[in-house]
Design brief:
The complex is a heterodimer of chains A (577) and B (220). Chain A is an alpha+beta fold. Chain A folds into three domains: 7-61 and 377-509 and 516-572, no CATH class; 86-175 and 298-342, no CATH class; 195-243 and 250-297, no CATH class. Chain A contains twelve helices and 23 strands. In chain A, strands 1, 2, 15, 17, 19, 22 and 23 form a seven-stranded mixed sheet that branches. In chain A, strands 6-5-11-12-13 form a five-stranded antiparallel sheet. In chain A, strands 14, 16, 18, 20 and 21 form a five-stranded antiparallel sheet that branches. In chain A, a hairpin with a 3-residue loop joins strand 8 and strand 9. The radius of gyration of chain A is 34 Å and the shape is elongated. By secondary structure, chain B is mainly beta. Helices cover 5% and strands 31% of the residues of chain B. Chain B is globular and about 60 Å long. The two termini of chain B are 21 Å apart. Classes of the chains: A alpha+beta (577), B mainly beta (220). Chains A and B meet through loops of A and strand 21 and helix 1 of B. Chain A: One of its GO terms (cellular component) is dynactin complex.
Chain lengths: 577, 220
């Protein structure tokens, strides 16, 4: 377990489908009773393979005010509010992001060798360059692949035009997703289709300049795409059933749907028309159209796999880092063929409850701000739990605030103090339930000395000072005052209470040959937490009145009573074995 | 107010709640600012002496000259900053172009800048920090290296043994691990509370930081 002891996980109720269905019908009393009985029967097993998917650290959980439920990352939907580069913290407009391959369009790059961030450095005059990208971790620089930049800014644009080795790239590479790639081709009406004679005139001069240097795969793809689009436009220009919008592969557009439907409905018409007009599509035949000669067999063996030193070869992860191919070079064999990769963008996302669509978290739009406009985190509703060993002679030494490795001796009872701190501004009654023997192969005995108690309301420190004199009388009869007495709290404060948790670790017996499973010696205690409170603050009162007016419509009446049930898993320590 | 009775414990405790181990070596203490409730444990080395030299006539037209006042501060720690044993805090440095006082070509000299650490920052044992800025609610594990001029934004958790190369920027809300460091996950919304002060809301970082602070100190 990577986490230091003690740790707390909360199981989101969404994982248990039956449980969820029952709790959603809050009004009917008997269903809840059923559920209680059911809960008593089956305890949550933190070791069950399924439970791993529902356990979350408390800070990852949200709380929906409408559903009155804990929401884990699986029961929220996310919306992207802003896209930004995590290295330069510049925001990119949504329209641009796609065309740029979800990568930083400015100067941020990552090292193709070690994936670290790269720094623009000058080789020569500090002001006038030339400039290179340098990795401060593995000391790789773009000089290693023969790339230098004239300006320290707009490096992405400059790099797009330079091939490894420093020569100009064969053709300007467009992203296949780019909006600018061939926007004018969207509709043939905006531009008359090219006649064959026209095209030959245009293509020929290009051919001379380009054919010397073969296109790289992306440019070839784009060239072939435009070429075949033109071919389709020509061959079907007179065919009424074949609309031009189909060329963009817009399957969801109504016109292409109609075209497909036509194929089925007037079969005869289509065949007649096909016989009437037989235009033959020609294939690409020049390099500018994307045509490339496959390397012939005998010369191919030599050129396909030249001798490369092992040191010069790329690793699988380095190749994977080079995707997509219109930015990097995922076909690279040698280290010298790798290219620095622009930084992937990150997003600021707001979260909604998946069931009621209420916003649970919405960050501020400013990239530099780490704050949230709306943030309904579960820790504002459920008690914050801390666990410490009981300070008695012969007990465990107190761990650091960040925990550590706790080792318990089997068979020897150990006491812990579990402190629950109430974040709500209302009194909460808490009942804790735990199986007396933990589920799993090794049954450790667990006892909570005081399973039912009341937590005082949270209040500002100022309120606390004002009402200081009448505070101590609350629940005095229930405090054991630092003693371990069954049925009594260990200690209590304004908005917190401590209970004693006793554990008798079972000894782990194993045969000589038997290997212990991973983390089998860890003691994890499932605790069922049930919270009940009545909302009293003004805001909820307003809500209640609003609900009251809707009463005749047959809605649920919100009496301000809230109830929350969840399983909490406490990792206490390891058993010595 | 009468002076506190001198307690000869392991820690020097100040009025503002700072706890500084007597076994820590703090160099150039007059260049170090502690905002309060900071803990500096044993065997920590703080190089406050590496301060930008006072410049009687600051050279004009330099971009970095904006920060005129922190000339004399080399290290600034916010509230509830916890420095574990064996750490090193070293101010970042950079070559800057300065006009030659004797006239002629401008020179490039190594200049130290300020290491600014905001509130609720934990730095684990044996970690070397040479960052330019570490914002609030940052957890840095043990045996990490935070390189020269690194900038770490709010709400970041850095796992043990991570190396952050020099001059890198780390956006907020992430978990970072590895050598070199890379983003391995996201931090939950509940990692840190809203910036609103005065509330007693309990959230992971705040509670932990306060507990950490309370756990060390002289035995009374």
């Amino acid at each position: 377990m990577a986490l230091p002891f003690p740790y707390i996980f909360i199981s989101c109720p969404c994982s248990d489908v039956s449980n969820r269905e029952l709790t959603s019908k809050r009004s009917s009393r008997d269903v809840e009773l059923d559920q209680e009985i059911q809960d008593d029967e089956e305890t949550f097993d933190p070791r069950h393979p399924r439970s791993a998917f529902s356990l979350f650290p408390p800070e990852h959980l949200l709380y929906c005010e409408e559903c009155h439920e804990i929401k884990c990352p699986r029961c929220v939907t996310e919306e992207i509010n802003a896209t930004y580069c995590p290295d330069c913290l510049f925001e990119s407009p949504k329209v641009m992001v796609r065309g740029e391959g979800n990568r930083c369009p400015r100067n941020c790059f990552h090292c193709p060798i070690c994936t670290s961030q790269m720094i623009t450095a000058s080789v020569g005059d500090p002001k006038n360059g030339p400039f290179i990208l340098n990795c401060n971790y593995c000391m790789w620089s773009t000089l290693d692949v023969g790339i230098k930049f004239d300006k320290p800014t707009g490096i992405r644009g400059q790099l797009d035009e330079i091939a490894n080795g420093g020569e100009q790239k064969a053709a300007t590479v467009h992203s296949p997703y780019s909006y600018q790639a061939d926007y004018a081709r969207k509709s043939s009406l905006s531009r008359p289709p090219l006649s064959p004679a026209d095209r030959d005139e245009i293509a020929d001069p290009k051919e001379d300049s380009v054919s010397a240097t073969p296109l790289d795969p992306t440019a070839r793809f784009n060239a072939l795409k435009t070429f075949y689009k033109e071919q389709i436009t020509e061959s079907s220009a007179t065919d009424a059933t074949f609309s031009t919008s189909a060329l963009d592969m817009a399957y969801s557009s109504p016109s292409s749907l109609q075209r497909i439907m036509n194929l089925y409905t007037n079969k005869e018409g289509a065949t007649i028309r096909a016989r009437q007009k037989l235009t033959v599509m020609r294939e690409a035949r020049s390099a500018s159209e994307g045509f490339a000669l496959a390397a012939s067999r005998d010369s191919g063996v030599e050129s396909q796999s030249p001798r490369i030193d092992y040191d010069e070869t790329v690793t699988a992860s380095q190749r994977a880092f080079q995707y997509p191919s219109f930015i990097g070079n995922p076909a690279a064999l040698k280290v010298s063929e790798l290219r620095p990769m622009p930084t992937l963008m990150r997003t600021k996302r707001s979260k909604r409850c998946a069931t009621c669509k209420h916003i649970l978290a919405r960050p501020e739009l400013k990239i530099s701000s780490a704050r949230y406009r709306i943030k309904l985190i579960a820790l504002n509703y459920v008690p914050f739990v801390t666990i410490k060993p009981l300070p008695i002679a012969g007990g465990l030494p107190p761990p650091g605030p960040d925990g550590g490795d706790v080792i318990l001796t089997p068979g020897k009872p150990v006491q812990f103090i579990m402190t629950l701190r109430n974040p709500l501004f209302d009194d909460v009654s808490v009942s804790l339930g735990t199986p007396s023997v933990t589920p799993g192969r090794h049954g450790h005995r667990v006892t909570i000395l005081c399973p039912q108690f009341r937590l005082g309301k949270n209040s500002d420190a100022w309120d606390d000072a004002l009402s200081n004199n009448n505070q101590p009388d609350r629940g005095t009869g229930n405090i054991a005052g630092g003693e371990q007495v069954a049925g009594k709290l260990y200690d209590q404060g304004r908005n917190w209470a401590s209970v004693v948790l006793e554990i008798i670790p079972a000894s782990i017996v194993r045969q000589q040959s038997e290997e212990l499973d991973e983390d089998e010696d860890v003691i994890e205690i499932p605790i069922r937490v049930r919270l009940e409170w009545t909302v009293t603050d003004d805001e909820a009162g307003m809500e209640r009145r609003k609900r009251d007016t809707r009463l005749d419509e047959g809605d649920d009446i919100d009496d301000g009573k809230r109830e929350l049930n969840y399983w909490m898993v406490v990792g206490i320590g390891r058993v010595a074995c | 107010m009468p002076p506190k009775p001198a307690v000869r414990g392991e820690y020097i405790e100040t009025e503002t709640g700072n706890k500084i181990s007597r076994k820590a070596s703090v160099l150039g203490p007059r260049h170090i600012i502690l905002a309060g409730k900071c803990v500096i444990q044993n065997d920590v080395v703080i190089r406050g002496d590496l301060v930008r030299p006072a410049q009687p006539k600051p050279p004009p037209q330099q971009g970095e000259q904006k920060s005129a006042t922190p000339d004399q501060t080399s290290i600034h720690l916010g509230r509830y900053v916890f420095i574990s044993p064996g750490c090193t805090l070293h101010p970042p440095s950079r070559l800057t172009t300065v006009a030659n006082p004797n006239g002629g070509e401008p020179q490039q000299i190594m200049t130290y800048f300020m290491l600014r650490i905001s509130d609720y920052v934990y730095i684990g044992p044996n970690t070397h920090v040479r960052a330019a800025e570490i914002k609030s609610n940052v957890y840095i594990g043990a045996n990490c290296t935070v390189g020269n001029m690194v900038i770490i934004k709010d709400n970041v958790k850095i796992l043990d043994g991570t190396v952050l190369p020099a001059n890198t920027v780390w956006a907020g809300g992430t978990i970072i691990a590895g050598r070199p460091g890379r983003v391995v996950g996201e931090i939950g919304e509940g990692w840190a509370a809203n910036g609103t002060s005065g509330s007693t809301m309990d959230e992971g970082v705040g509670v932990r930081s306060r507990e950490r602070w309370a756990a060390v100190g002289n035995k009374r």
